[in-house]
Structure prediction request, 460 residues.
Amino acid sequence: MIESTYDEIFTLFNEITNHYNRKDQYIDILYDSSSSTIIIKTPSSEDITVNTKTSGVVARTFIGNWEEVAFDGSGDIGLIKERLPKVRGKGEKIAEFESWKLNKELKPKINPNDISIDEKVNRVREVFDYVMNYDERIFNAQIIYKETSTERIFVNNEGCQLRQLIPRIRFGIIPIAKEEGTVDYDVYIKSGAMGYELLDLITDQVVDKAVENSLELMQAELPPTGKHTVILDPSMAGMIAHESFGHGLEADQVLRDRSYLKKHLNSKVASDICTIYDTPSYENSYGSYFFDDEGIRAGNNVLVENGILKNFIYDRRSASVLNAQPQGNGRRESYAHPVNPRMSNTYFGSGDFALDEMISEIQYGVMLVHGSFGMEDPLGGGMQCSSKKAYLIQNGEHAKILKGTALSGAVLDLLKNIDAVSNDPIKLVAGTCGKGAEDYVPVTDGGAYIRAKNALVSPG
Prediction:
């Protein structure tokens, strides 16, 4: 398998899946190959990790439950027929979905493979030196470069024959400032499903802004405590959409009666001006792909429309049980990890308000900026999110900068109290999402600016 071309892999997989009749049982096979380069620079270390290629295969059949076999790229593909049972009369145990074909590579403008490791390291060093020499109050910094390339080949006995090759890249800047005993930092991350051309976006002006954001925190004061009108920037809004709300929509939690949202399908969960999406087909985003790890075409899942909960987030099995149409959210970290319903690009849709207008109408409130921490509570619907910093708003203007601010309470209360959403273009922030403490996949979240009344804030 290691040296096989994708045409040869298609041929091998088709031969096996054709051995199993779809009327009797469902079967699919996934080939997973990935490579990565990670460079992390701090004052005390320079860590370089290059993983040229790891690959493996996972095959499974559904016979009332999933039976799986997985092995690395050097394994014997003949093991699939030996270990996956051949049965009769189980085909209707799982719904049949679209049969389609695709062979698509996302072509970067600059292929990271064409850039030497020395050049990548030197670019990280240049940014690190620039940050450290910017201001004497910057006493520490961390610069992070990460590139990955992921190839997935999928075949099933419904007729799917799919291949995708997706490069992803992230660049992070963390300037740490210190002044009169106060230490704080902000974080800048740029990412996308793209190539080394992302580094062209890391200009001196971008780095200047990243450092100034950390230095600004030296003058920050503690935020107020209590219920206030708040404005959430796209990163904070995205954290609410993903952590506080989205995890409760994952349909495996619904089937296990571990979601507070199970009883709310087709009911009002947010204000009329609130729309929330999960869109794996979002173009060139870090959390995007063409098909999921179950061969479902990446779609656009409207989770909340005009305040009404319209859809959960499905994999094949949960969509079958709940008689729903999956949009491409059955995801694995790798061939060695399980499939689960997972988010991709989760965000609030834009609204009709100008941000300046949203601010000008607040007599006293808080604007939370740059989400830094969010805790999921799919069972209870509790919200616990924090920003890296915030701004006090008085008489319709920014009055002063505040330290990290926590937002808590019930997430549905916040969503129902949204009274304005900005008309800004959607902004997404990249990250990785785990299922509990494992099974990490690339995601983004974000949206526009949102304003909500009676939100519970405190020092975070």
